[in-house]
Amino acid sequence: MKPLTGSFLRSSTLPYARILGVLGSVLVATSACHHTPVPETYGGKTKEVGAAQQNKRSNVASAANATSATNGENSANAPRDRAPETPGASGPVSNKDSEKTKGTETTELDANKGSAALAPPIQPSKPTPIAAATAAPANELQDELKSEESSVGVAYGAAGLGLSGVGQGGGGRVMAARKMASVGHGRLRGVARAYSVAPEPEFNTEGYAHVPDSKFLSVRDQPLSTFAADVDTASYSNVRRFLNSGSLPPKDAVRAEELLNYFSYAYPAPEAGQPFSVHTEVASAPWSPKHRLVQVGIKTPELKGAGVPKDLVFLIDVSGSMESPDKLPLLKRGMELLVDTLSAQDRVAIVVYAGSSGVVLPPTSGASKDVIRTALSQLEAGGSTNGGEGIELAYKLAQQNFIKGGINRVILATDGDFNVGTTSEGALTRLIEEKRKSGVFLTVLGFGQGNVKDSTMEMLADKGNGNYAYIDDLEEARKVLVREAGATLTTVAKDVKFQVEFNPARVAAYRLIGYENRRLTAEEFNDDKKDAGDMGAGHSVTALYEVIPVGEAAPGPKVDPLKYQAPTAPVASSASAELLTLKIRYKKPDGQKSEKLTVTTLDSGASFEQASADFRFSSGVAAFAMVLGDSQSRGSATLAMAEGLAKGALGADVHRDRRNFLGMIQKARVLAKSSTAQVLRTE
Fold it and tell me: What is the mean pLDDT of residues 134-161?
């Protein structure tokens, strides 16, 4: 039997004290059925529990069983997942199956030899269904247990804990299960019941940075809109994870730009020698027909041929919080997909961290795939999470094996739950900003649920010249690490910034949809010391502006006239047909000085129906994000509208990403109709 290790205790939802209390309850459990005195030991003194005391316990148990009969119908419909096991059985046992169990053989731990021996069969009474255990008799049982002479153990736990306790002294076995009651057979052949008295909710410590709602800004007051490129896609797959698990995502988990940039768009390929192409399109906004919607898109060139050699360091979180199947096991399968794509010119090293960090695999040729797979397969979760120490070691290894002119990248795979060592966001920010000076780039892969520190992982990617993806299943791992490996691993432009100047003669107000945590000041656009987003090979970045034309009412409070100066008068160029001017700054991967591109955009007055399929699909994605994020500027947008817009603009959709998005919208509509926690416009 596997011992209860420290990693088990940490990953459990039960507090340590209650687990210890449960173990103690099992070890002192004795029969509530016999009326002969039973010796019990308290603090080294032995006393006998008489018939009167045992009768009182029997009456309590009988009352609980009586309540069980009245609630039998409800109990029969209780969920049966993770039901308590019967010793010797191979699967979960339902209430109905437990009632049929007669004379089950129980196992005792031989205190002298430490081996298991079969105890004589006993006839346990029916397990009390959990519905009955939480009624008045259970409360009476609590009062009874306050007596120091009580020998019936009560287990408190999340939604109930079933126990099968066997052994003497420190020996024994505990089997935990939810939503069911079970029986435990002790050495004295007594029966100890486990009741759920007060179910506790499961703890959720996921962390998301606040996403403020994007509001309209007056062109007269703020003619410039400046922001950094964002190629992260984590928010999209994280939202999908919430919907697949049957719940709507938190508002702050929905970042519109990451939903938009999850998809590829048919933007033209860049001209030879150019880092990217620039595309703009203007049509009416479907949720506010009197407003105009501006799509801005840029695309980098695709990788051709075998590409440049790669020096990759896998920095893998193996702390106890990574034990569940959707974390370390999924992580290892995803990394194996990447290993399959490596060539002999590539090198891979593996660094792991928990309470401390270490090198599991020194730099190894990509041709030695079996060696790399073996190292991955041997990883197991356990311990606390010292992410700062792991980052230090991974970057040190990457710098020692730096390939000049190659791809040098640390791939951090974690749930972001750093709890020892460098843990504060400020300290981690300074650490990763220092490491990016080495020329080593960063990819952050998020895993799991319940304790996902999304804000920490996003910050690390932003500050580390990197990108952030959330892996919710193996297909997402394939998309990020195989299908879009060039975009994920190969940086072709860094510190990419956008600045849009709107023509006050044509635009009264505007708002940028998404990019709330990527906004820059106007001055930072020309500041080459200011960090911004990086783009990989084959990446595209899409941004949408909702524009209010001059003559239409602009929402929001007005600014009082200035007392000491007059507003700046429009210049002659404002009389042109130009709607806006787009400027883009970027640096080459190894450069320190930025270059600038400038593009002007006209508005031909096109209707939404006349827009391209990419424009209409991105509008559907934006509507979906605005509704889930409960944006106050969403106009008439609903989930039904989002579905209609996307369904009519699927395009080629080679990998079915857009069709899968339709499934997400449909799940959100079902959940929104039944949700009482969040009111959404679904129809």
Answer: 38
Rounded CA separation 260/245 (Å): 22
- Euclidean distance between CA atoms 60 and 562, whole angstroms: 80
Residues whose CB is less than 8 angstroms from the CB of residue 100 and which lie 6 or more positions away in sequence, other chains included: none
Q: How far apart are CA 125 and CA 610, in angstroms?
A: 74
Distance CA 108, CA 168 (A): 8
Buried b (16+ CB within 10 A) or exposed e, 481-514: beebbbbbbbbbbbbbbbbbbbbbbbbbbbbbbb
Work out whether strand 277-285 and strand 288-299 pair parallel, antiparallel, or are unpaired: antiparallel
Q: Across the chain, what does the average pLDDT equal?
A: 76
| Residue with the larger pLDDT of the pair 180 and 622 | 622
Which tops the pLDDT comparison, 7 or 526? 526
Helix H or strand E segment including 616: helix 613-628
Point out which residues pair with 578 in neighbouring strands.
602
What is the Cα–Cα distance from 471 to 94, expressed in whole angstroms?
34
Contact 65, 125 (CB under 8 A): yes
The letter for the amino acid at 356 is: S
Residues 97-118 pLDDT 10s: 444 443 443 333 333 333 333 3
What was the pLDDT predicted at 253?
96
What residues are paired with 46 via a beta bridge? Answer: 41
**pLDDT interval class at 193 (50, 70, 90):** very low
Whole-prediction pTM: 0.71
Q: Which of 41-55, 412-426, 430-444, 598-612 has the lowest mean pLDDT?
A: 41-55
- Residues comprising the chain, all counted: 683
Strands (E), 589-628: 595-602
**Are the C-beta atoms of 117 and 110 separated by less than 8 Å?**
yes
For residues 639 and 626, give the distance between their C-alpha atoms in angstroms, rounded to a whole number: 9
Residue 596's SS3 state is strand
Name the token pair of 549: 């034309």
Read off the pLDDT of each residue in 228-253 and give the average, rounded to a whole number.
96
- Token pair 């990446």: residue: 539
Distance of CA 89 to the CA centre of its chain: 35
Report whether 231 contacts 533 (CB < 8 A): yes
Beta strands in 452-594 (DSSP E): 466-470, 491-502, 507-513, 533-536, 540-549, 578-587
How far is residue 561's CA from residue 548's CA, in Å, rounded to a whole number?
21
One-letter identity of residue 543: A
Amino acid letter, residue 173: R
CA dist., res. 609 & res. 281, Å (int): 13
Residue 299 makes CB contacts below 8 A (sequence gap 6+) with 265, 267, 268, 269, 270, 276, 277, 279, 538, 539, 540
Give the CA count within 13 Å in the CB-facing half-sphere of 196: 22
Query: For 201, phi and psi rounded to 5 degrees?
Result: -75, 150
Q: What own/partner pairs with CB < 8 Å and gap ≥ 24 does 330-333 have?
A: 330/447, 330/471, 330/473, 330/474, 330/477, 331/413, 331/445, 331/447, 331/471, 332/376, 332/377, 332/379, 333/474, 333/477
Which helix (H) or strand (E) is 114 found in, with range? Answer: none
Where is mean pLDDT largest: 150-159, 349-358, 573-582?
573-582
Single out the residue of 186, 167, 189 nearest to residue 111, CA to CA: 167
pLDDT tens by residue, 238-248 = 999 999 999 99
Q: Helix or strand or coil: residue 46?
A: strand
End-to-end CA distance of the chain: 54
Return the minimum-mean-pLDDT range out of 61-70, 221-230, 525-534: 61-70
pLDDT per residue over 639-683, tens digit each?
Answer: 999 999 999 999 999 999 999 999 999 999 999 998 644 445 455
Amino acid at position 52, single letter: A
Distance CA 179, CA 160 (A): 5
